[in-house]
Amino acid sequence: MSVDLSNVRNIGISAHIDSGKTTLTERILFYTDRIHAIHDVRGKDGVGAKMDSMELERERGITIQSAATYCNWKGIDINIIDTPGHVDFTVEVERALRVLDGAVLILCSVGGVQSQSITVNRQMDRYNVPRISFINKCDRTGANPERVTEQLQDKLGLNAHMLQLPIGLESDLEGVVDLVTMKALYFDGENGEIIREEEIPAELQDAADEKREELLDAVSMFSDDLMEAMLEETEITTDMVKDAVRAGTLALEFSPVFIGSAYKNKAVQPLLDAVQYYLPCPTDVENLGLDLEKDEEEFPVSNDSNDPLIMLAFKLEDGRYGQLTYVRTYQGTLNKGDTVYNTRTGKKVKVGRLVRMHSDEMEEIDSCGAGDIVALFGVDCASGDTFTDGKITCSMSSMHIPEPVISLAVIPSDNKAQVNMSKALNRFTKEDPTFKTFVDHETGETIISGMGELHLEVYIERMKREYGAEVEVGAPQVAYRETITQRADFNYTHKKQTGGSGQFGRVAGYMEPLEEGEYEFEDKIVGGAIPREFISSCDKGFQKSLKKGTLCGSPVTGVRCVINDGAFHAVDSSDVAFQLAAVGAFKEGYMKAKPTIMEPIMKVAVEGPSEFQGAVMGSINQRRGMIIGTTEEGNYTVVEAEVPLSEMFGYSTTLRSLTQGKAEFTMEFASFKPVPKSVSEELVKKYQDEKKEK
Amino acid sequence: MGKEDLVANNPLQALGLEKEDGNNGRRVGLVMARAGLGKTAILVQIAMDSLLRDNNVLHVAIGEGVDKTRTWYDDILTLMNEERKVDNFRQVVDEVMKKRMIMTFKENSFSPATLEERMEDLSQQGIFKADCLVIDGFDFTGADSASALGELKAFMEKNDLKMIWFSAVSHRDDDRVSANGVPAPCHELDEVFDTVLLISPEENDLRLKTLKCTEACSVDAGKSLVLDPATMLIKKV
Question: Tell me, what's the ipTM?
Answer without folding.
Answer: 0.82
